[in-house]
Amino acid sequence: MKKEVLIITSYFPPEIGAASNRIFQLANGLQQNDFNVSVLTPLPNYPTGKIFDGYKVKFRHVSEEKNITIHRLWIYASNSKNKLLRLIAMLSYSCSLIWFFMWNKIPKTVIVQSPPLLVAFTSMFFLRNKKRNLILNVSDLWPIAGLELGALKKNFSYKMLEKIERFNYKNANLILGQSEEILTHVISMFPNKKTFLYRNYPDFQPPQLQQVTSSGKLKIVYAGLLGIAQGIYKLCTALDYSTIELHIYGSGAEQSLIEDFVYQHPELPIFFHGRVTRDELHPLLLKYDIAIIPLLNRIYGSVPSKIFEYARLGMPMLYFGGGEGENVIENNNLGWIATSGDYGDLNRVISNIKMESLTLERRQNIQDVAVDNFNFKKQLELLKAII
Question: What is the domain range of residue 33?
Answer without folding.
Answer: 3-202+375-384
